[in-house]
Amino acid sequence: MFRAGQRAYQELRTEIEAETTFTRNFENVFVSGLLQTPEYARSRLGEGLADIGASDDLDDAVAARMHRQQVLYQAGRTFHFVVTEAALRYRLCPAEVMAGQLDRLVSVSTLKTIRFGVIPFEVQLPVAPVHGFWIYDDRVVHVEHLTAELKITQPREVATYLTLFARLAEVARYDSDARALITRVLTDLVATM
Length: 193
Prior knowledge:
Distance between the termini: 36 Å
CATH topology: Endonuclease, Chain A
Order of helices and strands: HEHHHEHHEEEEHEH
Shape: globular
Strand content: 15-25%
Helix content: 40-55%
Mean pLDDT: 89
């Protein structure tokens, strides 16, 4: 997946996002790349650089990921993001970086093009959130693994992911409830800094 470098992978994602009008994304471990701050992105992209055998193009990869985010502000596009509370609490980067990331999520959750939901710890999950995934329109699902990506296009399989996303989205909290949850996580984080 990263043989050509991480920047090239970000650019491939930019292409599919440019062709998509409705993007759904579920994340159980990370904050979505489209919503990341540069510092969080640097931490995520830099984490396994040596392990995955990618060329060291970290600066270019972060810039490309930030460039991808322009799609959030384009007319005619909508996004539905659902994350678990765990994704907001995992310490995958320095605390001050995560604090900035949480603050960014509060801000982007108010954009008209975005529906942003958080599944709190206290709700019963309708299905086990085995892995994160992206659904582009109703035509393709992308699932990232450590070293590869699945591109699912079979209509029956895409339909399964659409159903899974709907079930997870149903138990998420949105709008002021989501922002309150994010703020609670941020308060807990700041208390440990």
